[in-house]
């Protein structure tokens, strides 16, 4: 049977489970303060294919952040500053969407963090404007908007993904996946508007994956803000 997978995204603009991983100081220093976007994107490790047994989500999140800033630079806009509290709210929502298996700006499971505003203000309420982008996609390297594939189950329970010609579809590199995610947002007018809004100056990006999905699903959140 041939299966089709189409990526999705959603947007929420504001004019204005427990335990999750926050941005460790060493990760912050390594990926966001000591490098500019162009330098970060020259890192050869971005060419490495994603390995689910050793998946560096911090690295992917940073790649999404810096590729988003490259889009800003193309329009001669001020680059986003990384803001840890926006990163925390993005982590919170991406992990929640994976844990409770939903795709929406509204969290109907955890009422405390129901809306983007409630999630973002939980960590910091000093913003005068906010915005949120979300999306879902997969980790396979393929051409075109819709992935067509069939699966073969391996003896260890994992899946081999094959295209219509029987060729293996491999997981993409960190750069490939991050670039595809940013392009997905940029190809949607409202998401693009958030990324290129010169009144938004701070950004936090976070993704999470669901390895129980076939193919493995990734859901990501971008939280934007401007301090009062």
Structure described in brief:
With 228 residues, this protein is of the alpha+beta class. The chain is 33% helix and 24% strand.
Structural class: alpha+beta
Strand count, sense and closure of the main sheet? 5 strands, mixed
CATH superfamily: CAP
Number of helices: 7
Strand order of the largest sheet: 2-4-8-7-3
Question: What's the shape?
Answer: globular
Cα Rg: 17 Å
What proportion of the residues is helical, as a percent range?
A: 25-40%
Percent strand equals 15-25%
> Stretches where pLDDT falls below 50 for ≥5 residues?
15-22
- Roughly how many Å apart are the termini? 54 Å
Helices and strands, in N-to-C order?
A: EEHHHEHHEEEHHEE
Text of the CATH class: Alpha Beta
Strand segment tally:
8
CATH topology: Pathogenesis-related Protein p14a
> What's the number of domains?
1
Description:
- It is a single chain.
- The protein has a 5-stranded mixed β-sheet, sandwiched between helices. A 3-stranded antiparallel β-sheet has the order 1-5-6, with no helix packed on it.
- The chain has a single domain (27-135, 172-227), classed as CAP (Pathogenesis-related Protein p14a), CATH 3.40.33.10.
- The model is unreliable at 15-22 (pLDDT under 50).
- It has helices spanning 25-33, 37-40, 57-74, 84-99, 116-123, 174-186, 189-195; strands spanning 3-5, 8-14, 81-82, 127-138, 147-153, 159-162, 202-210, 217-227.
- The protein has 7 helices and 8 strands, in the order ββαααβααβββααββ.
- The chain is globular and about 55 Å long.
- 33% of the residues lie in helices and 24% in strands.
- The N and C termini lie far apart (54 Å).
- It is α+β, with helices and mostly antiparallel strands and 228 residues long.
- Helix 3 (57-74) crosses helix 6 and helix 4 packs across helix 5.
């Amino acid at each position: 049977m041939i299966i089709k997978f189409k990526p999705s995204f959603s947007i929420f603009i504001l004019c204005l489970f427990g335990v999750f991983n926050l941005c460790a100081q060493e990760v912050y220093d390594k990926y966001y303060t000591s490098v500019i976007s162009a330098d970060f994107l020259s890192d050869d490790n971005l060419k490495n294919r994603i390995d689910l047994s050793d998946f560096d989500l911090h690295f992917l999140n940073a790649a999404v952040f810096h590729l988003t800033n490259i889009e800003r630079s193309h329009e001669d806009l001020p680059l986003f500053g990384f803001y840890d509290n926006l990163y925390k709210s993005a982590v919170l929502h991406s992990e929640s969407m994976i844990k409770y298996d939903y795709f929406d700006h509204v969290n109907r499971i955890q009422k405390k963090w129901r809306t983007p505003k409630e999630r973002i203000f939980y960590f910091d309420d000093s913003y005068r404007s906010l915005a949120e982008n979300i999306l879902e996609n997969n980790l396979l390297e393929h051409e075109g908007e819709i992935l067509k594939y069939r699966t073969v189950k391996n003896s260890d329970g994992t899946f081999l993904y094959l295209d219509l010609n029987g060729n293996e579809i491999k997981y993409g590199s960190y750069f490939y996946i991050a670039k595809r995610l940013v392009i997905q947002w940029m190809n949607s007018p409202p998401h693009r508007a958030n990324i290129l809004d010169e009144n938004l100056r701070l950004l936090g990006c976070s993704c999470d994956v669901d390895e129980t999905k076939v193919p493995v699903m990734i859901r990501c959140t971008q939280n934007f803000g401007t301090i009062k």
